[in-house]
Amino acid sequence: MYHITLTVPSREPLFGTLVIPENNPSNARIERTALGNAVVDELYVMCRHYPEIRILQFCLMPDHLHAVIHVTRVMDTSIRSVIRGYWQGVKKLGRAYTLSVTAELNSETTNEGSKDAETTNEGGKNAETTNEGSKDAETTNEGDKDAETTNEGSKDAETTKEGGKDTETTNEGGKDAETTNEGGKNAETTNEGGKDAETTNKGDKEAETTNKGGKDAKTTNEGSKDAETTNEGSKDAETTNEGGKDAETTNEGGYPFPIFTERPFIRPLSRRGQLHTMIHYVQMNPQRLATKRLKPGYFRVQRGIEIGGRKYDGVGNVALLMAEQFDTVHVRSIMVKTAEHGDDKELRDYMNSRVLLARKGIVMVSPFISPQEKRVMQVLIQEQRPFILLTVNGFRDYYKPADALFEACAAGRLLILSPWPYDDGKRHISRSECVALNEMAEEFCKYLNGTENGTMLC
Length: 458
What we know:
Alpha-Beta Plaits, Rossmann fold, four-stranded antiparallel sheet, alpha+beta, seven-stranded mixed sheet, globular, 9 helices, 16% strand, disordered C terminus
């Protein structure tokens, strides 16, 4: 049995959208996108290639996929190779999806920060009619000369010649007005200084096609950017976005290429009861996400909660720190050993006393490590009593408590605190860590019981 998780590393909701009818988490569902359906279909393709594999449960979420699979008999191929093949398949789907998205983005002419390439240039002036400091390019130039026929110091190459030169063929310097001007530039598109002989005068910029710098707007603007779509300081809306990245692959705020850069997570399910727990976890994923969306404050990781000079990261109801009284749950090893020798009265009395204190409104604080401490925590959850759990590992950005702890957190009855940052490789708690957490619980309670409003959230 294996639990497989495929994630979109950017956490963008590419697989679907969460729908919460009437704000009721129990009715939450995921409406799939085309990519989401394709990723699910690829699971069944995997099963057709490997008939030994059965899908026991799966759940598609907006940004990840959970699947519980059963390998019914020994295969020649390892499960890691099988899942690697599945990953390669979804990577192809991701690339195809990205290309389709960027094709749609490329059909637009502007991206964030660029101005309309058809109508404006630097300063927001109309590129069809006006340039910086120039008058109407169709009718007027400096000195009231006709912009259609004359520029300063030169005559229209179509109608006038300077000093009797044929206006049909030459401009200033006797060069062909149809083809070149002074400096060998094309008279169709540029005049002396690279300006348009048809529409601009000396010192002006081409009214039809160019921006500041007087370069041909059909091909380049200052900074070698496309004057068809951008002006000085803007990037080519047709092909590039901020950072000069190719619009065929990425667009600012768009989807990364490729999408699936992280291998699927594979977790063996070998312990008794683990399969049933995982199937339930997968089934309840939409409901848990809906609860987090409706009550974000209880599930957001909060950093730097200072208590008694020590800083913690936390998830849950921070308002529990303002309770009137706190006490610990710490089952001593001597109690357990005495109970193992047949006298469990001291142990039972201590555990019952913790529950009775909780019923009086006292908030219990503990790492709840030993089996006896866990039993006390289960009673607190069943009786819906508030408590604070100290944990050995920190929190990922998308952390959420599991099962019963999740429900207690959603109800505002739980605060989980950790004095240490998250460690992805952390699997077991050491004895020294157990001792440290129990000592923290003791000093935690002493500090809060002896100091009014003794917390500070940084």
